[in-house]
Amino acid sequence: MAAPAPTPAPPSATYKYPPEVVDLRTYAGSISKRVIDLKSKRDPTGEHVSAQALLIADAVESACAARSVEVLEPFAAVAVEEIVRLFSSCCAALDAANQRPRFGAKLSAFAARATSRSPSPSPGELTSLGDYRASLEAVKALLRIVDGQSQLVYSGTLAPLAARRPVRALTKDLSFANRTITNQALLHDAISKSTVVNQVYKTTLQTMANITDGLPFPCKAVAQTVLQLHQHGEAYRTIDSSIGTLIRKVDDFVEVLAKPDRQNIAPGEDIARAVERFFSAVQSIIIRLEILRATAKIKKLVAPTAVKTAVADAQADLDDARRLLDMALQVDTNNSTRKILHAQGLAKRVAIMGAGGLGKTTLANAVVQHVDVAATFGARRFLVTAEAAVEVDDLLTGMLATFGLPASSDPLASLLQHFRSHERTLLVIDNLETIWNSANAQQRRMTEDVLSKLDNVTSLTLIITCRGADLPPDVEWANRDAVVLSTLSPEAALATFTDIAGNIPAPDQPVRDALLKEVDYMPLAVTLLARLVARGKQLRDLHRRWNSVHTSMLRTQPNGRLDNVDASVQLSIAFLPSDDPAPLQLLSLCAQLPDGMRLPVRNELERLCSFRDIDGALDVIQGLALVYVTDDDTIRMLSPIRLYVLEKHRPSAAHRASLLRIYYKIARQAPRRLDTQFPAARDRILPELSNLDALLLSDIQNFDESPSTDLINAVNAVSRFSVHNVPNERLLMALIPRIEHLPTYLAYSLWILAKIHWRRDAYNLSLEAATRARSLFQSLRQRSDAASCDQQMGNSHRVKGNYPEAIASLSAARETFYELDRQLAMAYCDRDLALVFHEQKNYDDAAALFTSARKVFLRLDEPANAAVCQEMLGDIYRMRGDYQAAETQLESALQTYTSLGSMANIASCSCKLGDVYRVQQRFNAALESLQVAYDIGQKQGDTLCTANALLIRSYVHRDQGQFAQARRLLLDAQRLCESIEYTRGLEHCAEALAELDRAEQA
């Protein structure tokens, strides 16, 4: 019963619609066909749905005719995508209706029971066609369809709308939105009268409006669009609380851009590009949220998963715009030159500060050579260096020669007279730290006196570069709030590297990116790496050298600070006071900690090491930019600086012993079991995990004496915690060869190693470690520990498909625990035996064991293990086809895992739940659940988890007819199963490939 629809304006014969528009037309046709197939004449709802869908498709085609998608942003790329999703869901509802008589009444009845069903309902079950009709009408109004054509194209800003408002009011709003506000007075008035933003933010928006005044669209429309976003912010937050985070990101961008010193944004420059990207992102957010509001009756389209999908792309654009802005403001020589060129009143004084290797000299040279600076100052541009000056008089005498002035008994007076005799002069003094950071207090005072007198010359523009973070006093520095250069962004570092070394072959690009990250994107280190590659060095060789010799490889000349990272860092260290060892001592301790020294550690060190004034020592090294302090009072170092200090300036034995004592205590606090206390304990130790790893590994490797019991216990505690976090065997692999003569400690370490290998899917290695640990425990007559090794061996045999061996090991362990009256350990064995029965498809015996073990776990306060049993009971329901019961059990187990922070269990349960959603044809929910499992597997290096997630994802795509994607995922899963010799997984992959072949041939 297809309804007639207006005919769109025909495009040119050669025009091809964008793929999104083609998909939309295909779905609209499918809706019409499905309505005809229903053959219901008593209920006109289907006819209305078909008519609205065809009308929307025709209107979109009329808007897109002979235009590119880019021209129609954000309409074509965002709105069309959301409408396609709406049409797809409508098709699913109609398919469900085709299978039931009196589809209107059936679907309405299902909708009435929505509150008693799953939170992520199937659209065919919970949404009536009347809801689709209402939503389609709201979308039609939103798109401003007049005479079958959409008026919504990229000709101005789009005001956010309430989809449920009367069409007449909607049209009025849209008409206003399409008139770009060109009169600044109107915009300022709208901002000042707004009741949805506070006075501070009103001022910020006013500033942004002034900045962008006179620029072409879209830059000048940003302030208006952000205001519109805020006007409907509360309504958007009711869709999902995460929208609030999105709006805060918008506000952060505006506040950074609208700082008082942000002036004269020129189109085509980096900042203008960032603003343009930002505008597009905000517009996309508005469009997506309005479509969501228009389709509010469709339960699936406003489910949490759908909301996240709807805003993800726009949020990525927003983050990209912020990265562009940060790059533009971070290393933006144009910004610095504008400060110079547009100086009014007092001449500008700019200080470029920072650690060695951050590009201070490079930036100063760029300013001097900039074309606008050359046009303004002409030949009156001078860069002098203080690098070779021993004292202030050396610098002044050198400056006389630079300016062609005769020698004088008072060189400063001659220079001041010279500067005052010229209308305009630019003077850059490079490496001022040579004389200003001098240990000679008199030279420091004389340097400050020179700067003060230069500051009084109104015709002089002065720029200095100086190592450190502390500004020379008594000068009105123009950039006082942002004087310290930071490292490059990852994107800027990559661009710098490519400019010097050229394009890198694809196989070597991960090595290049890893190297850039490991040098903390420090400009000098990035430049020297690129020069080495340009000279023919292989990236993989450089990476190996970096891991062994670190910063000493970063040199292209022996001693120059601009060609040698070590020389650059040592130059800063040379300015530390020679009469006070505390700053260097603190620096050497900080270098031991790759993740920084946190405030509690610093306070404890002050007590144990008897620092007379640790804050004063920190001020010294922070003033030289050898360290920086974050908002949480953590002292951090750039990687090249830290590695140089680590090698060249080791702490005293007493200080290092104190540091180890502190971290041994931290290690003892690592949680050992998954219980209600685990999340809080995990969060306390995670910030120190990298520091623990570095300190303990260094302690194992670099000292000749036998490891202390404190060290062994710390390594075992951290390694056992890693079983529940991200499995890491590195510390144990280094420790075990050093404790072969200590059988008790060795056996325990091997048992933990077996569990880590098992979690990392290295089942043969797990068996080997558990077998050796079992032998040691037996020789020590520790029956319970030996039985624990039997249990671990049984689990490895199970995953390898060796079921008789698994049952034998687990039964032996259970018998020992029974004799020792260890009820909890017996329950562990019952749980693991049930897993064997489950894999053998003996579901009755498996369910009985899971049920009995769960009762014990609940009684003994073992929530994680109880949830494992519940998860597996849910999986048995899944295998038996009772998907509602399976969903209930699995979602309950997942809730327990989430409350405990058990990531591996979350991943396992999410895989099973994803398969349940798949069978229920809730494909978006299935893919979201499987993505969670896949991400955890990737992060934790859990190959088995990753393979299972890929396998079930392939089922989802196969069920939707996406055979090529399903095959690719299956082959990836098969490869991973082969890598860990997972027999059962390989069988599943083979079965799935055979079924896929049959589906493709059907």
Automatic annotation (TrEMBL):
Q: Which GO terms describe its molecular function?
A: ADP binding
Pfam families, alphabetized: AAA_22, TPR_12
Q: Where is the ORC1/DEAH AAA+ ATPase domain?
A: 350-463
Query: Which InterPro entries would you find in this protein's record?
Result: AAA_22, P-loop_NTPase, TPR-like_helical_dom_sf, TPR_rpt
Task: Name it.
Answer: ORC1/DEAH AAA+ ATPase domain-containing protein
Lineage summary: Eukaryota, Fungi, Dikarya, Basidiomycota, Agaricomycotina
